[in-house]
Design brief:
Keywords: Kinase, Phosphoprotein, Transferase. 66% of the residues lie in helices and 6% in strands. By secondary structure, it is of the alpha+beta class. It has a 5-stranded mixed β-sheet. Strands 3-5-10 form a 3-stranded antiparallel β-sheet. A two-stranded antiparallel ribbon has the order 1-2. The two termini are 73 Å apart.
Amino acid sequence: MDENRPTIRRQLTRIVLIPSISFLALWAAMAAVETYQAGSLLLSVTQGRDGISAFDRLAEDLRTERRLTQIHLGDSEDTQVRRALKAQRAQTDASADRAHDLASDLGAGLQGDPLPGIRAFAPGSDRLSGLRSTVDGGAADRSVTLTAYSELIEETTEATGALLQPLEQGASLPEAEQARRLATAHEQFSRSDALLAGSIAAGGMDYQETAHFTYLTASYRDILADTSDGLSGRTRDRHAALAASDAWRAAERLSRSVVTRPPVSEGTGDQPAIWNSEIDVSAQEWNQAATAAVPAMGRMVAAQRDRTVETAWNAAVRRLAVGAAGGVLTLAAGVTAIVAATRSSRRLTGRLRRLRDDALSLAGTKLPAITARARAGSSVDVSTELPRLDYGGDELGQVADAFETAQRTAVGAAVKEAEIRRGANRVFLGIAYRNQALVQRQLRVLDEIEAEEEDPRALRRLFTLDHLATRARRYADNLIILGGAGSARRWREPLPLADVLRGAITETEDYERVRLTSAPRARLSGAAVADVVHLLAELIENATQFSPAGSPVHVNCGRVNGGVAVEVEDRGLGLTEQGYAEAARVLSESPEFDVMALPEEPRLGLFVVARLAARHSVAVRLRPSPYGGTSATAVIPDQLLEWAPAAPEAPRAALVEHRAGACDAHGERDGRG
């Protein structure tokens, strides 16, 4: 035995091992990815904690410098404020250097690009120094300066957000969102503090500053009110301590007094009313309240950020532990499953090998011989010819029983098919020929009655019967064509193509709806007249049956490369894409007629068209019509046509007339069919 030949045992072994090993490899890859992600999260937590602390320190220094700058711009003569501002600038520069150095080591949130917001504090940046120079030059506007410092602080917030982003996973996501919102409230409160402190130093607050101050105070109050219910732990405690502190209450009271002061000062005498810029708040009482409330709010924000970092750290540790435990358990389960499956496959291999040998013997030798004898008409005893396969009552035994049943069914079907094929075709054609003979006799009788009838009403009814009999003859021809024989009607001489088209139209039920718009001056070979008339009649009748009653069906005819194209176009619902594909397959393959292969609602006309088209090399194609229905095109080849101009005939013998009230003249009546 060839050792390299595939065996059932090897197949089963591969069936067991490949999925198992693939599963283990997939799990190992997933565990590795999970471990890597958990490790990356731990590293992000470690580095993010240091980076967030540095940028928070820088933001606090910028807030302090912003406040002192606003006071200095409000009262530039205060030497104590100038000294404090100079010292604060040096402290801010030191914090910026530390944050920049740390950000250079971390990269863009651990992604390799410069950290957002740090560019403004790089050694080569002049934004902060330029802002300070403008302030020192005495040309700075308090509102513009406040906005410029606020933009610098927002850039530090961007850097903090970039460091928080890797931590926003799972349970830490809502914590990080709370931290962001509290940081926004902290910044808005600090900005309102700087704005009010500068206005107090300047001796008043104009309309724009009042509106800005009102917006800032309303914003941080809304944020604190929205987030208070979702806080927990130290953040909740510090929030409660802040809300209960005297400094916060004083700051809230003073800020509300600024917002709610009378907006207009009443004029005296001829003086008009003006904006009330006076602030009934002293610098000392505001400083006492704000300098205590701002750091308290900062501690609350820091507590929430610490909670976010702690939550992310705990999640990363849990992911590492779960990944390691899951990997060990999965490895043990996989090894156990492989061992058990391998043992089961060995027991199954022997039985499968025996079933294979028996099946090959029956399928390769006995079954073909029995089937051949049955098709040849020999007598076959199925129970004697096919031995019973006994492999027990489990699934393998059921497979053997199913195989045995399939063999018996195949042999029985072969015998039955041979019997049906021999008798069905004879019966089929016999019925068709008898039916056609009766219709022909009926048409001759109708001709005799029509010739003797003079009553117009009776004659019209006779014409209707004549038309119905003509259609019945075509249906009988359908059966003969499907049975493999040729049509009984024959024409010896070529016939004008226009008469062929009219004859096809009149063999349909709703011929009055059909409009023949064009026909070239050509003659069709007499040997093909009957079949082409039949083919076109089937296409036209299909168009009338599957289009709305009363809608026209257009028949166009024109010369094309290689012959003449006859196009039948209706305005019905058309076919589906699957229907067009199936029609194209039937028309291209000219199938053998087999009632066992027909669908539930067979369209026998399509089979007839395919047979006739294949007999005379007529190309037939169905496609969607621009009017929503179906357009059927039949290309009659040049070898069936004569293009030489014909001499006019008077009277010309035609197939039929297609207008109501005209006398139908059938081909066999003039001796041509």
